[in-house]
Amino acid sequence: MLQQTQIATMLPFYQRFIDRFPSVGHLARAREAEVLAQWSGLGYYRRARHLLAAARSVMSRHAGRIPRDEAAFGRLPGVGRYTRGAVLSIAFGLSLPALDGNVARVLSRLWAVPHSARDRRGSKALWELATALVPMRSPGDWNQALMELGATVCTPRSPRCAVCPVRGACLAFARDAVGRFPPAPKRAAVTRARRAVAMLERRGRWLLMRRPGPILEGLWEPPSVALRARDAGRARAAPTGAARSRRPQAARTSAASRLAPSPRPPAALKAELERLGVRATLAPTRQLVRHRIMNSEFQVEVWIAGASVARARSGSGEHGARRAAAAVVGARSRDALRASAAPARGSSLGDRSPVPRETLRWVDLGDPDVPITGLTRKLARILEAPAPPRRRADRVRGLRARE
Fold first, then answer.
1. 221: which strand partners?
2. What are the structural domains of the chain?
3. How far is CA 295 from the centre of its chain?
């Protein structure tokens, strides 16, 4: 879990994971969906799949005991040079280096290495340093000490050089150039795109679909589509600058920005719902959610099966509004949804029966046994939040979807 994740972020996930899978055997017997559900929110889901595959390999090839041999451990799925060195030095006392971001920063400043750890030359130089320095006795303590030094003293910004125990040997400190080491790596270009998502609710559960691969494969998310420039241009952005500063604080959120209502749902989103066999009357929520996956940044329009627009058009009271605005699941999707709609919590992952492979299902977003994406978590928080006072009159409510 500590691969590319800070300890403070990881700890709550770790405790829940260990509670659910207290041994390698428990993990090896788990379904992938169960493991992804416990990992949900931590990101980099390939790590979870590798961990599950490694546990199964330990049970089938090593009699349930984690191998302490460097070559055998290195053949486990998901184990690279850093993980191999960290686990074997800390758990088994093997004299192996463990070069993570914190250790790389410490060594880069101590020896004034002129290359980033992400650069091929810098990586080679830092691994050679780490290998030469690791002691034969207590190598795990040594590796953890370097990690801790980098995490608490030799930090990326505002390093605490005054209390550093090795500043007398630090070339970067001697040159008054600590801030220049390690050199900043070249960042990959960020791609930006616009999407639209449809939120359909039924008896407290939401219609989600299983994402295909390769990114976030197997996780659940509301139906969504990419928007072309002409579709995305229909929505007007929220006020900025002085106009934004005059808005009440309650109207500002970190996860979403307000939009003026679009005249109609994107045609691509309606077509996607039709492809899934879902017919729905969609209304805007005036929310634009910003979300990032690796080097891709998305702005997501949120649409919901709503009663407000339909009621205004029907003119037939509540009965007419229900008939006009109800989200209806078509015949092509009923078979896929019927199995997943039966459990009370919207999921069959909590029992030991096989996980259904349907594309669509009704999901209770609070169910810890259903692996949902980070975007779905953001949408859940937004839909549960009360509308700000100035917007309360035109707040859009969700209308339950009906089979």
1. 209
2. 1-79 (1.10.340.30), 97-187 (1.10.1670.10), 191-237+252-402 (3.90.79.10)
3. 13
State in Å, rounded, how far the first CA of the chain is from the last one.
40
**Hey, what amino acid is at 353?**
S
pLDDT (0 to 100) of residue 231: 61
Six-digit token string for 192: 């930006």
**Both tokens of residue 52?**
């599950």
Tens digit of each residue's pLDDT (9 = 90 or more) over 102-112: 999 999 999 99
- Name the pTM for this structure: 0.67
Is 206 buried (19+), middle (13-18) or exposed (0-12) by CB count in 10 A?
buried
Residue count of the chain, please give it: 403
DSSP assignment letter at 278: E
Question: What mean pLDDT is reported for the chain?
Answer: 79
Strand order of the β-sheet with 256-258 is 224-226, 191-199, 296-305, 282-293, 256-258
Q: Which of 273, 282, 385, 277 has the alpha carbon at shortest distance from 331?
A: 277
The continuous run of DSSP H or E covering 301 comes out as strand 296-305
Contact 239, 390 (CB under 8 A): no
Crossing angle of the two packed helices 120-133 and 101-110, in degrees rounded to 10: 90
